[in-house]
Write a structure and sequence with these properties.
The chain is α/β, with parallel strands linked by helices and 678 residues long. The chain has a 7-stranded parallel sheet, with helices on both faces. A 6-stranded parallel sheet has the order 16-21-20-17-19-18, with helices on both faces. A hairpin with a 2-residue loop joins strand 6 (109-119) and strand 7.
Length: 678
């Protein structure tokens, strides 16, 4: 079996499984091998009911103290039993598994294993799996990989496919230079792949992860080195300062902050100096990056060029499109929208207007970089939420014009030391001021006992005409927990709040059109409470939302929590962030206190870096970035620096020679860059 072979070659992978894998961008064996676990399920021995703690996955053994009870709540059928052992009792709940009601018998001993949660002040064993004694003890001490999933495929199916692929793979050759492996004390590539998927223990997992994370970051640094060797190219579009843009700036109903003005000047200097601009603008949530982008686009159009504005979601694209139309539409600027959800007729019309130059500015998603899309005079490329796009995607858009200027924007605060490494091919600007009219978000860290009080506070905010976000964690042990968390939580809220309160749930397993519809409804004010996973992290601007409550806040990195908090505080009303924690650990409290005590994203990022140290948060992706399959720039900051130092050891000529000698290495680098021409 070869790396380039289709996943269909794997025993047991039929047409349906192949379609599901394709949905997750897994097409060949190489893609599957790099579909890394997001976590591991470690089977620990049976423990006494009295010793279980909130937030852990626990196995208990006991018998029923009362007959199973069934109740229906909306679309949910909830089965509840009381399990007892010599130390105490615990409620056990199953959702949409009514058949268990007749299977569970009084007087029979059961081994149940599931997540311990707290509901109504009491610990509950949630959605456990039932094991025979033989089944359970066969698993004790093992680490079971838990993979990202899509609807229609199970964790077990992916596990079996990977076992087959690793057993039969033929051309899994080493590609990392031996001297680099030796200096960094890294295991071989094949060994790392086996251990990352099926480690015998935590030590093996860490060893494998160290190698694979280093690979990603080292290859990325080589890719940046390849870009750098060409230096700044001459610009085909010299963008001169226009008086009309200056008047537009004066007529805005607000003044730019000092930081916004400085960054705008840096952009104008770059675009006017005869060379291609390649600049990253880092700005905290709510710092006003968008208006700087609008000003740059307007200058470009006044100079006869076209601008492209690429964002990661359709909802965000639609929001930026409406904003640009409102700001520039009355000044003769022709603005278009190009997204994947347009009809075939609408797409054809959009492509024609883009190719003819009828549209001056095109706002869109990844649909902009399709081969069928061409520009008449593309002079400025802007990517919003830079961490969602790789170098390759940025380059694909740039290739649609003749040496266009590039402006990338990110609301993810990254310490400058890391940003200079991660975005080493770009000049860096920072907007570190908030507009004067924005009130700082008020924060509080509370445990689950506070939840009734939080609900009363939310009800009061809704009566005042405001809206609420509630965030559920995505990382769980159970295969369908992402779905269950949101759906169950939504139904429970509908029981608690009066029918007049409109509550909707949003999760990653929904179809894109459904997600967009729910977010648009929330943006329009049609929903009072939106229960969501982190899919809203990069989302919509809803100035009317004043409260965000994040469940199990200790499970997220500080940078991601800050990003989520940025969903509120965008209007003139006072906003609030409630960090609900299920852990009482000193470490969790220390980390969350940093967030509660500051609204400065760059300070938080620096503290996050310090607090992480050499911690082990494997599988809990902190930023949602898609650039790396495994690496986390905060968790792996030390490795990022080491990879950068190793890449610097190679001269430009040595890098080219390295590519020529090692085709596998060249292939890997091209994953970031696109085609490498030597």
């Amino acid at each position: 079996m070869l790396l380039t072979d289709s996943v269909r070659k794997i025993k047991g992978v039929g047409e349906k499984a192949q379609q599901c894998l394709n949905k997750m961008n897994i097409y060949n064996i190489a893609d599957l091998l790099e579909h890394y676990p997001r976590d591991y399920d470690e089977f620990k021995p049976i423990q006494a009911i009295s010793s279980v703690e909130e937030g852990e996955t626990a196995a208990v053994e006991g018998s029923l103290s009362a007959r199973p009870q069934m109740k229906v709540r909306g679309r949910l059928k909830i089965l509840t039993v009381m399990l007892q052992d010599e130390s105490g009792t615990i409620p056990v709940t199953w959702f949409n598994m009514p058949f268990l009601r007749n299977r569970l018998k009084m007087g029979t001993h059961y081994i149940l294993r599931g997540k311990v949660t707290r509901k109504n002040g009491r610990l509950v064993l949630d959605q456990p799996k039932i094991y025979t004694r033989q089944e359970f003890y066969r698993q004790v001490g093992k680490m079971r990989p838990v993979y990202p999933l899509t609807f229609g495929i199970t964790n077990n199916a992916i596990t079996k496919a990977l076992e087959c692929a690793l057993a039969d793979i033929e051309n899994l050759t080493e590609y990392l230079p031996s001297e680099v492996r030796k200096r960094q004390n890294l295991i071989g590539y094949k060994k790392a792949l086996n251990q990352i998927h099926f480690p015998a223990n935590r030590m093996e997992m860490r060893e494998a992860r160290k190698r694979l994370v280093f690979d990603e970051l080292f290859l990325y640094q080589l890719a940046l080195s390849y870009i750098k060797k060409n230096g700044r190219s001459r610009s085909a579009h010299v963008i001169q300062r226009r008086e009309e843009a200056a008047r537009f700036l004066e007529e805005l109903p607000f003044a730019l902050t000092g930081a916004q003005q400085n960054v705008y000047e840096e952009i104008l200097d770059d675009m006017g100096d005869g060379y291609v601009m390649n600049r990253l603008v880092q700005g905290d949530v709510g710092s006003g990056k968008t208006i700087v982008a609008v000003l740059a686009l307007y200058q470009t159009v006044l100079n006869g060029g076209q601008g492209a504005f690429m964002v990661p979601t359709e909802v965000l694209a639609s929001q930026h499109y409406k904003s640009l139309c409102g700001l520039l539409g009355g000044r003769g600027v022709r603005i278009g929208l190009l997204t994947g959800s347009l009809t075939a007729k609408e797409k054809k019309e959009a492509r024609e207007k883009t190719a003819s130059g009828e549209w001056d500015i095109v706002v869109g998603t990844h649909a902009i970089i399709q081969d069928s899309v061409t520009f008449a005079r593309l002079a400025l490329v802007i990517t919003d939420e830079q961490h969602r796009f790789g170098v390759r995607q940025r380059e694909s858009l740039c290739q649609k014009g003749q040496e266009p200027h590039v402006l990338a924007m990110s609301a993810t605060p990254i310490p400058r030391t890391l940003a200079l490494i991660l975005y080493g091919d770009m000049d860096l600007s920072v907007i570190d001021e908030r507009p004067a009219d924005r009130l700082p978000v008020k924060n509080c860290v509370v445990n689950t006992d506070y939840r009734p009080t939080a609900y009363r506070f939310m009800a009061d905010q809704i009566r005042q005409g405001h809206q609420i976000y509630i965030i559920c964690p995505m990382v769980e042990e159970r295969e369908e927990s992402d779905l269950e968390n949101v759906v169950i939580y939504t139904e429970e809220l509908r029981e608690i709040f009066p029918p007049s309160v409109q509550i909707e749930g949003l999760h990653g397993k929904m179809k894109p059109a459904q997600k967009d519809e729910i977010m648009e409804q929330f943006a329009a004010g049609g929903t009072d409470i939106l229960v969501s996973t982190t899919v809203i992290e990069v989302g919509i601007d809803v100035p009317n939302s004043t409260v965000i409550m994040i469940e199990n806040a200790e499970r997220f990195g500080l940078a991601q929590l800050h990003q989520l908090r940025g969903r509120v505080g965008r209007g003139s009303a006072q906003s609030y962030c409630i960090l609900m924690t299920g852990q009482e650990s000193k470490e969790a409290k220390e980390r969350l206190s940093v967030l509660a005590g500051s609204n400065d994203g760059f300070y938080i990022a620096e503290e996050d870096l310090k607090l992480r140290g050499q911690g082990d948060l494997f599988g809990i992706r902190q930023s949602g970035d898609q650039l790396f399959a495994l690496a986390d720039i905060f968790e792996d900051a030390a490795v990022l620096r080491q990879a950068g130092e190793e890449a610097k050891r190679f001269t430009e000529d040595e890098i080219v020679l390295l590519y020529k000698k090692n085709h596998r290495l060249k292939d890997r680098v091209e994953q970031y860059l696109g085609q490498v021409t030597l």
